[in-house]
Amino acid sequence: MSSHEQSYRAGETMGRTQEKTDRMMGNIGEKAQQAKEKTKGTAQAAKDKAQENTAAANEKASEMGQYTKESAQSGKDNTGGFLQQTGEKVKGMAQSATEAVKQTFGMAQHDEDEDPYVTHPPRNY
């Protein structure tokens, strides 16, 4: 074989090797691009899901806050009415006790029509 023929075959081999290398590099590049796009899609889906969860949690917290506010207001309203009634009852009992003491010591003012020994129950307003 001549030197010229050896060079020719070496060039052919080198060309085929280069072509195979280029094809392999192209395949690797395509696979890398596909992996990149898949990762990007997965990351976007995770981000969207996190935003949905955050929005749902914020809405739930707002609802719970409103419920707590309404419950507190209802409790406040009920407590005010209860304290008003209790105050009136205590006032009535104190007046009855005062009248009983006055009657015991003979200091009570008597109406002609009224029996001085009858005690009246406290009024409930």
From TrEMBL:
Stretches with biased composition (Basic and acidic residues): 33-51
Coiled coil regions in record: none
Region (Disordered): 1-125
Gene3D superfamilies from the UniProt entry: 6.10.140.1430
Compositional bias ranges of the Polar residues kind: 68-87
GO cellular component, one term: nucleus
Record's protein name: Late embryogenesis abundant protein 2-like
